Amino acid sequence: MSKKYDVCAIGNALVDYEIEVTDEFFAKNNVEKGLMTLVDNEKQKELVALAGDGIRKKQGGGSAANTIFGVSDFGGSGFYTCKVANDEDGHLFVNDLNEYGIDSNLNASNLLDGTTGKCLVMITPDAERTMNTFLGITTDFSPQELNVEAIRDSNYLFMEGFLVSSETGLQAMLEAKKMAEESNVKVSLTFSDPSMVKYFGDQMRQVVGNGVDLLFCNIHEGELFTGLEGLETIKEELKKYAKQFVVTLGAEGAVTYDGETFSKIEPFPVKAVDSTGAGDMFAGAFLYGINHGHSFVEAGKLASLASSTVVGKFGPRLNETHIAEIKNQLSQ
Questions:
Q1: What residues contact 147, with CB distance under 8 A and at least 6 apart?
Q2: What are phi and psi of 78, to 5 degrees?
Q3: What is the rounded distance in angstroms from the CA atom of residue 196 to the CA atom of residue 36?
Q4: Confidence of residue 311 (pLDDT cuts 50, 70, 90)
Q5: Paired strand residues for 218
Q6: Which of 138, 153, 179, 212 is deepest in the core (most CB within 10 A)?
Q7: What share of the chain is helix, strand, coil (3-state, %, to 5)?
Q8: What does the pLDDT average to over 39-66?
Q9: To the nearest whole percent, how much of the chain has pLDDT over 90?
């Protein structure tokens, strides 16, 4: 019996504010480059003010949100569970989901008082993204937000690693994983960012628990989680934690493991402009692929091309033209 959704994702809903900065900006304002750092509302407002007129784009985001938008981009079906406030940014986020045809636990009438989370995405000329995040109302994302029917009616549960940074978010992950396992729904997890493995390693291990069905990580996150170095070493170690997995390698492509075979996924060379959301899009396109009859290698090629297309432009989303070009290039 087919399920209603390819993927039910849970994560921190954030409105992304994208700005362009220089490395000097980081040094002057004590910002750690290349990582996601949690900040308070005042610190974030201060950085936005200091950046001046550099804001390029404002749109709904967050790790799992970007992934579910990616699933939708290619024609997949998704449900997104999150928490936003009854403010301008919250309504923007709900409208984004509705526009993409993504079902969620939100509607304009059930939004609570508070402040919607924001992610200040700072992009340097080398295309690296550095994030300062004020979680706002999603700090209290909890099991209360979960929709058990949506989880049960999905092929995959997808969880973002950023949720481990709050106690209630961690509990939501553990509860969602339990719901999925009890309903024979496959559990997929992304580590999301090296900082989550580095500073919340115990919590992340708690979520992984007795293993997940599908894990997404980059090589740096894989090394931090396993405590080992080098691709050949960590890919053997990751078998202990995931039945199947993908290790992304940036400009060098990725490696997939389908439970039996390792496959190298070649990169699609691109002039990097902004790496924001590249890993999220990889996961979204990959999840779409394996839900729609593609092998791990075929899904990996789709994901590799989709993520390189994201890196070649500003922002984590693709438009209809990008999708058409990706499909055309792969068909050739």
A1: 8, 79, 81, 105
A2: -145, 155
A3: 8
A4: confident
A5: 248
A6: 138
A7: 45, 25, 30
A8: 85
A9: 73
Alpha-helix runs per DSSP H in 13-87: 23-29, 41-51, 63-73
Which residues make beta-bridge pairs with 81?
10
DSSP string across 317-330: ---HHHHHHHHHHH
In which region does residue 310 sit, left (phi positive, over 0), alpha (psi from -120 to 50) or beta (all else)? alpha
Residue 315: strand, helix, or coil: coil
Evaluate whether 288 touches 302 at the Cβ level (below 8 Å).
Answer: yes
Whether 226 and 238 have beta carbons less than 8 Å apart is answered as: yes
Calpha distance 4→187 (Å, rounded): 16
Give me the chain's average pLDDT, please.
93
Mean pLDDT of 11-26: 90
Measured torsion, CA atoms of residues 199, 202, 205, 209, in degrees rounded to the nearest 10: -150
Extract the runs of DSSP E, i.e. beta strands, from 67-153: 78-81, 103-104, 118-123, 129-134
Asked whether 133 and 120 are in contact (CB, 8 A), the reply is yes
Please name each of the domains of the chain with its CATH number.
5-331 (3.40.1190.20)
Strands across the sheet containing 262-265? 103-104, 78-81, 5-10, 154-160, 186-190, 212-218, 242-248, 254-257, 262-265
Residue-wise pLDDT tens digits, 279-288: 999 999 999 9
- Please choose, from the candidates 206, 193, 202, the residue with its C-alpha nearest in 3D space to the C-alpha of residue 162: 193
User: What pLDDT does residue 54 have?
Assistant: 66
Burial 245-254 (b: 16+ CB within 10 A, else e): bbbbebeebb
Angle at 94 between CA 93 and CA 95, to 5 degrees: 90
Q: At what angle do helices 278-291 and 63-73 cross, to 10 degrees?
A: 50
Residue pointed to by tokens 């900006």 = 25
